[in-house]
Structure formats: C-alpha cells, structure tokens
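Why does residue order matter? Because the sequence determines the fold. Keep that principle in mind as you read this record.
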Amino acid sequence: MTDKIIVFVTAGKITEAKRIARRLVEKRLAACVSVIPKITSVYTWKNRVETQEECLLLIKTRRQRFDELRQCIESLHSYEVPEIIAAPIVEGAANYLNWIEQVVPAEG
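Structure:
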C-alpha cells in the first residue's frame, strides 16, 4: 500500500473540469489530473433518477493532501454536492509514484 490516491470528481462542463484541474496542479495539490470528457452519469437527485453527460477528473495525489484538495474542489465546483471520492493506489510503477511524491509536497 502506498500513500498515493486517485480522486474521482465529476463536472458538468469541460471548461469547469479544466479549470479545477489546472488550479489543483498549480497549487501542487495534484501531480496530474486527467480529464475524460463525455461520460454518462445516471444518479438519484432529489428523489428523481437523472441522466447527465459529465466529465470525469482522475486526480493523482497524496493521501495527506486530501482535505485541502477537497476544500479547493468544493470552492471551485458548481454542484451543490460534488462527487469527490478517493481510492488508494495500492501499487504502481516506482518512478511514477516517486514523481507524484516530488511534485506534491506532504504538507501545504
């Protein structure tokens, strides 16, 4: 198990997704953010089943920076309840994991 995580975030517009991605990288809260356009999300919101085209952000970072990263996303996001879910990176290429560690400091 590593201290690295991938954080999943959805956004309704590509412009918003790119703005969030850029800010996270600029603030060194993320080493890399991959933006995947045009996914289809089906979810329940206010007792209704909704279907919406969204973008998915895959954010590579360190576990100890999650709270600060979450706060940054929430301050930039247009959704009332944005999806912000972290999953551990159990294993990975050592040189890639080391790169994340070099780019994202353990503390802000």
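The longest strand covers residues 48-62.
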